[in-house]
Amino acid sequence: METMVYKEVSPAAKIRRKLDECKNHLQLNNLFSCIVSFREVLEFFINATNMSEADKNKVVAPLNDFQQTLSNSHQFRDLYGSVAFRDNDFRTSYEFIGQLIKIKEDEIASVLINKEVGEILNLGNLNEEEQQKTLMMVSLVERGEQSVLQKLVSENDDLASLVLTYYNDNGINSRATGDINKAIQEYKKALFVSPHDEHLFYNLARACMETGDKKSAEENIRRALSINPDFTEGTKLLNYITQWSL
Predict the structure, then answer these.
(1) I need a labelling partner for 69 at 20 to 30 A (CA). Which of 29, 96, 217, 235 fits?
(2) Cα(19)–Cα(6) distance, rounded to whole angstroms?
(3) Is 35 domain-assigned?
(4) How many CB atoms lie within 10 A of CB 175?
(5) Mean pLDDT across 108-131
(6) Global pTM?
(7) Beta carbons within 10 angstroms of residue 133's beta carbon
């Protein structure tokens, strides 16, 4: 019988393959999975003692390109704000992403054990399975894991409505107290739950107007009208923004 010989995959090829996984996570709006995978890539690169200089040089540009793509993505900016990674400084990137992951996990934990959050979500009126699914949705929203979230949402309309209302109300309340940046964050999280809700885009557009960001306000209200061209209040707001922008 002929013996099959398997060629060992080079460290550079492993890194490029893992980077493709990171890109796929980002395209699917699974941000947390993306940054966790990218940190694993950086760790492998930093600790690859058996990697030749030639192989290292092959992956430096792709690593730099991906971290710039990541920092420029709207998903990353929405959750972590404006961040600039430095080319070739992969150890700093590795440590920084580790800090982001730790901070985000701590934030999620504090939300999930918050009694006030539980009351707002009406967890006391749900059975144990429904409570777990609702908290899982919140966790996925906070992590920026949209594809998994949408599967849960499609299977649990009533629970998704609770989570949607939670984030939308957070946005409304934040805007009422003058914390407009917080309101924008909460509306964007609500859109993770319901990405085709023209009223959420309307709320987001109004919040953007209050920050003076006319471009974002117009982009969001146009998205609302692309979802529902008969949205009268949206048309009125677009007309106002257009005149205001002159």
Answers:
(1) 217
(2) 23
(3) yes
(4) 19
(5) 91
(6) 0.83
(7) 17
